[in-house]
TrEMBL record:
The keyword Transferase applies. Keywords: Glycosyltransferase, Transferase. This is D-inositol 3-phosphate glycosyltransferase. GO terms for biological process: carbohydrate derivative biosynthetic process. The keyword Glycosyltransferase applies. One of its GO terms (molecular function) is glycosyltransferase activity. Residues 222-377 form the Glycosyl transferase family domain. It comes from Microbacterium halimionae. Pfam families: Glyco_transf_4, Glycos_transf_1. Residues 33-213 form the Glycosyltransferase subfamily 4-like N-terminal domain.
Length: 405
């Protein structure tokens, strides 16, 4: 794979600054609620706001309602090509485009809009078909990987003994697609290292998903109650059960409550576990919330806790940092990239209920000056993840220009 920094750039300044036609291929997109969908939405909206013509290929909302629609995403209007898709019933909302139809839809849309560049958000289904058809037409492809094996295994419904085979086949398929891309990115350096080792490629570029820090309202004043918060999908790889068990072990005098924002297939199991642990009255399941409500919940929380073992970045953690929260996170995959132990919070051994409980106690019993120091460290640490830095980097990749610092 060619190093993006070595790609040729045009000597014509006007041409290198002209608006581009960008086609984003996303197997999950609005109204789905997950990190990959959120990133694709912000990328599409950010590029549109900069004057580029953005088209998105994504699954239809229902099988019957497909076609090209003008939709408003993150406040920006763009064209979404909703492909006929089917509900995957083992999952609570996932829809998929059939593999043998993906190339057909890709050919039709590529020939219609003639994009300058294609940016796929995964190698699965839409990304695979779009990459192969774009390459046939000489259209450069940028690929971003948001996939971890744990994301797949939750919903295969196959016996556990076949999981290893499923992962092996999935990464083999990923390699075939990603090697066709001009550049491959993933949200963090840790995630890039993981991907390079998983499919034996080189030159994967870490590019943060990015957030707009101005959208969040940090409250650095002392809290009137101890509120632990988690935001994300309620699925097995998030290990929310570990947080629930840790909450149950905290000193009762701390009167800790646990707010859970998000939906997923594990909600009922988590509700049952909270009952078994005797903490149902202190656990609040919000489900999906509006952006305004989420910001309010973030601003009043005491600490953000995440026990996930499958985060390639974690937009939710970055949102918590932008809200000025100390973070307690599992020392797994990309979370150590965001959480610096002893600075903006603490890391704990993945799956260790006792260690998580101890680190939560450290935050909740910290002196006001120590808490303020952790809050400020979160605000300082999220600066490098500003969405404008992310957009600058992808614009350079699209144009084949040297990457910004």
């Amino acid at each position: 794979m060619t190093s993006p920094a070595s790609l040729p750039s045009s000597s014509d300044d006007a041409d290198t600054q002209r608006p581009l036609t960008v086609l984003i291929g996303a197997d999950t997109f609005w109204p789905d609620v997950n990190g990959a969908a959120r990133f694709a939405e912000r990328l599409a909206a950010g590029l549109t706001a900069r004057g580029h013509e953005v088209h998105v290929m994504a699954p239809s909302l229902t099988h019957a309602k497909h076609g090209a629609f003008r939709e408003v995403i993150e406040g920006e209007e763009m064209t979404i090509h909703r492909l006929p898709s089917w509900r995957y019933y083992p999952h609570d909302w996932l829809r998929f485009v059939t593999p043998f139809r993906s190339p057909h839809h890709s050919r039709r849309i590529l020939d219609e809009i003639k994009p300058d560049v294609v940016h796929i958000q995964s190698h699965i289904l839409i990304g695979r078909g779009l990459t192969r058809e774009a390459r046939k037409r000489g259209i450069p492809v940028i690929a971003t990987n948001h996939v971890m094996p744990e994301n797949i295994l939750d919903f295969t419904t196959l016996p556990a003994r076949l999981d290893e085979l499923i992962v092996k086949l999935a990464w083999k398929d990923a390699k075939r697609t990603l090697l066709r891309a001009r550049a491959v990115t993933t949200p963090t350096r840790n995630a890039a290292n993981f991907l390079e080792s998983a499919i034996d490629i080189t030159g994967v570029i870490p590019v943060s998903c990015g957030i707009d820090r101005q959208n969040y309202t940090p409250d650095l004043t002392p809290r009137d109650a101890n509120r632990v918060l988690f935001v994300g999908r309620l699925t097995s790889e998030k290990k929310i059960d570990v947080v629930l068990r840790a909450i149950a072990r905290l000193d009762p005098s701390l009167a800790v409550s646990f707010d859970i924002v998000g939906g997923g297939d594990q909600r009922k199991n988590l509700e049952l576990l909270a009952g078994e642990l005797g903490i149902s009255d202190r656990v609040h399941f919000y489900g999906h919330t509006s952006e305004d409500e989420l910001r309010q919940i973030l601003s009043r929380a005491s600490v953000f806790a995440i026990a996930s073992i499958a985060e390639l970045q974690s937009i939710a953690t970055m949102e918590a940092m932008a809200s000025g929260l100390p973070i307690v996170a599992a020392n797994a995959v990309a979370l150590p990239h965001l959480v610096h132990d002893g600075e903006n919070g603490y890391l704990f051994e993945p799956g260790s209920v006792d260690e998580l409980a101890a680190r939560l106690t450290d935050v909740l019993t910290a002196e006001p000056e120590e808490r303020l120091r952790m809050q400020q460290a979160s605000l300082d640490g999220v600066i490098v993840h500003d969405i404008n830095r992310t957009l600058n980097t992808f614009e350079a990749l699209y144009r084949g220009q040297p990457l910004p610092e």
